[in-house]
Design a protein that fits this description.
single chain; 287 residues; alpha/beta; 6 helices; 28% helix; globular
Length: 287
């Protein structure tokens, strides 16, 4: 974690107390190992091999309330599945072919500038992170699969990319202060959040952490005449990962609760991609 990133962090358990950083090893202005402490809730968040691990307490607690038990169970199941497939994810031929269209299209929607501070919500193994990072000032990349983040770190190190901070966190409870980012992006992540409330929380968090007028690009599974031929609107992949497919009006309606939608396209086969802006006022809904 870069030293300049620490002031941007907050407790994912929404404690109002300031965090404290304990650095154990450091290299070139980066904390490689250490701890972040929250005096408010008593949580300790480790920094391991440069990855800051700031998961909310409900994803650690053995005792959770019945109201969120099913959602937490599904999230933990996906975390385990993502960890298990991290080494094989980049080998998927269909994904590599799709990326040749998806990545340039997403970059066109983002319009990154050298001065931009970027949030990538759900970076996975970094197949897009390594493309985004050279085009902007800095990146904070969030994912809840630690094995995927480790693979992402190795890619960035191999290419000499040093302007990225990797954080293990839940996109629905980002450990980040408000109004940080000039651009935010999430590609093919939202559809895997297991409840409508959770999906709203993720979009709300992307809006909250973005500056007024920031560009926010989000893609999610589409439910169209074509996708109805081979898949259900809601279900689980063979790996056990939950998914939800949006109709175009449904996706647009959900996004407009939190941000202004400038464009919504289905050009990416089984994804809808929305280009949005964070409103300049605070009157929008927050979950």
């Amino acid at each position: 974690m870069r030293q300049e990133t620490f002031p941007l962090l907050r407790c994912p358990n929404r404690c109002p107390n300031p965090l404290e950083l304990e650095t154990l090893t450091e290299k070139q202005g980066r904390t490689l190992t250490g701890f972040i402490h929250c005096a408010g809730c008593g949580s300790h968040f480790p920094i391991e091999d440069g990855i800051t691990r700031m998961m909310p307490k409900e994803l650690h607690d053995q005792q959770i309330t019945p109201e969120i038990e099913a959602e937490i169970r599904q999230k933990k199941s996906e975390m385990a599945a993502r960890d298990n497939e991290a080494d094989d994810y980049d080998k998927m031929k269909n994904l590599r072919l799709f990326g040749k269209v998806e990545i340039p299209y997403t970059l066109g929607q983002m319009k990154l500038r050298p001065t931009d501070v970027l949030l990538e919500a759900g970076c996975g193994t970094g197949r897009m992170t390594r493309v985004f990072a050279p085009k902007c000032k800095s990146v904070i990349a969030v994912d809840f699969s630690i094995e995927s983040l480790k693979r992402c770190r190795r890619k960035l190190e191999a290419e000499g990319i040093t302007n990225v901070d990797l954080i293990q966190a839940d996109n629905c409870a980002m450990p980040l202060e408000s109004e940080i980012f000039t651009v935010a992006v999430s590609c093919g992540v939202l559809e895997h959040v297991p409840t409508a409330k959770g999906r709203g929380m993720m979009v709300s968090e992307m809006a909250r952490t973005s500056q007024p007028k920031a560009t926010i690009v989000i893609s999610a599974y589409k439910h169209s005449l074509y996708t109805r031929l081979f898949d259900k609107k809601e279900g689980e992949h063979r790996t056990g990962i939950y998914y939800y497919r949006y109709s175009k009006p449904e996706f647009h309606k959900m996004l407009t609760e939190f941000m202004d939608v400038e464009g919504l396209s289905g050009v990416l086969m089984y994804y809808y991609t929305a280009r949005c802006t964070r409103p300049s006022h605070h009157g929008r809904k927050h979950v």
